[in-house]
């Protein structure tokens, strides 16, 4: 019998600072960046290097940078970016400075550490005057409802990871009631922005929808990824993108999804069912995640439909291993067909990302999933590949799973 686990409990005492901010007029952000330390150390050469800023919200992106130009005193770089709207839920824009040099790989030259936040929140103008590699600002966190943090559960299959459990309104007042459960991957980004600087705001959205009885109440379990996210969330081992000059050094990565599935099904789920008043059947158990988390969700629905009756396949990494997940759907021989929410943003890699999503949608329909019934497909034209974009779709996801 699964052992019962002690917990740390957090109540909703913090204000909804990020969730309640609304997008207003455009905000101009003026950058004035001190590069003198990088120049003195030889890491930045003004004669051949450029300085760019990249980020999570238009007109910034994690693709082409917005270039800053030399200005003011020697060693300083300046420029401005105009944001027409704030990210969903008043969340901050995430950005980093990037030293650019011809012949250098995309993963080189970035500022160290986590992203820097820009909280627009109806501010017409923001001045950013700092040095390259300055410590990012800390913003207040928003957590709503009763959230219990479980100690690490010992596993025979995967490394230890944090698990948090959000309990629906009225859970303590209705001791006879049982609830469906939603398990979400990348759980460190589900309830607050401490890890990524942005979050899904699942607690705020669920609290609002359940509080107004727009959806049935449910328990939400946020499962953080382990030390190797690729290992957890990929069903096959594959070669990553690499420089052809290094081809002899590259090894296949990933392929640990079967072990992660055993952790979820054989270890975590029994522990959750033992501690909380759950409805343990597959029909009342859902799973979800974004990017690689969307990939592993689709794989779990295909291969463990007897455990998970529905799933949120959000901005999935369909490209993994030459579209393995599409081939996997095409090979689906029957058995359970869990309900699938499948979506993709129009700014997640251009038309190629949308074409892959449509290919996966078509493969599902060809194998018996019915549009509007067992399959909900959504293209969010203006959405990128980030937590704020996914937060904007959480209401639709929860209505899909638990709408009355």
UniProtKB/TrEMBL annotation:
- Is the Signal keyword given for this protein? yes
Question: What name has this protein been given in UniProt?
Answer: Alpha/beta hydrolase-fold protein
SUPFAM superfamilies, per database record: alpha/beta-Hydrolases
Gene3D superfamilies, per database record: alpha/beta hydrolase
Keyword check for Membrane, yes or no.
Answer: no
Record keywords:
Hydrolase, Signal
Q: Which GO terms describe its molecular function?
A: hydrolase activity
Q: Which InterPro entries match?
A: AB_hydrolase_fold (IPR029058), Esterase-like (IPR000801), Mycobacterial_A85_antigen (IPR050583)
Give the signal peptide range: 1-25
């Amino acid at each position: 019998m699964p052992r019962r686990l002690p917990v740390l409990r957090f109540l909703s005492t913090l204000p909804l600072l990020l969730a309640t901010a609304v997008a207003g007029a455009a905000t101009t952000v003026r950058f004035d960046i001190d590069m003198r330390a990088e120049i003195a150390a030889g890491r930045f050469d003004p004669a051949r290097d450029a300085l760019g800023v990249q980020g999570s919200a238009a007109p910034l992106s994690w693709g082409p940078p917005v270039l800053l130009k030399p200005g003011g005193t020697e060693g300083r770089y300046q420029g401005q970016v105009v944001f027409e709207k704030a990210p969903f839920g008043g969340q901050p824009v995430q950005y980093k400075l990037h030293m650019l040099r011809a012949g250098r790989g995309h993963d080189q030259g970035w500022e160290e550490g986590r992203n820097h936040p820009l909280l627009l929140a109806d501010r017409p103008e923001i001045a950013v005057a700092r040095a390259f590699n300055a410590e990012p600002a800390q913003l207040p966190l928003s957590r709503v409802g009763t959230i219990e943090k479980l100690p690490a559960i010992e596993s025979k299959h995967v490394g230890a990871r944090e698990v948090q459990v959000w309990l629906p309104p009225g859970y303590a007042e209705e001791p006879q009631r049982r609830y469906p459960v939603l398990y979400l991957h990348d759980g460190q980004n589900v309830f607050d922005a401490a890890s990524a600087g942005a979050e899904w705001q699942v607690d705020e959205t669920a609290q609002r929808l359940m509080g107004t009885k727009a959806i049935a109440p449910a328990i939400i379990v946020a499962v953080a990824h382990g030390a190797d996210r690729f290992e957890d969330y990929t069903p096959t081992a594959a070669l990553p993108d690499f420089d052809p000059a290094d081809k002899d050094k590259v090894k296949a990565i990933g392929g640990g999804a079967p072990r992660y599935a055993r952790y979820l099904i054989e270890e975590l789920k029994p522990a959750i069912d033992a501690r909380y008043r759950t409805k343990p059947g597959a029909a009342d158990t859902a799973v979800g995640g974004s990017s690689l988390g969307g990939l592993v969700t689709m794989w779990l629905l295909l291969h463990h439909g007897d455990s998970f009756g529905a799933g949120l396949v959000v901005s999935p990494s369909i490209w993994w291993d030459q579209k393995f997940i599409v081939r996997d759907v095409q090979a689906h021989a029957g058995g359970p067909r869990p309900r699938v929410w499948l979506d993709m943003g129009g700014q997640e890699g251009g038309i190629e990302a949308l074409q892959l999503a449509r290919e996966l949608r078509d493969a599902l329909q060809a194998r018996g999933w019915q549009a509007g019934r067992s399959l909900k497909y959504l293209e969010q034209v203006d959405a990128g590949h980030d937590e704020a974009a996914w937060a904007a779709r959480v209401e639709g996801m929860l209505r899909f799973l638990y709408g009355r």
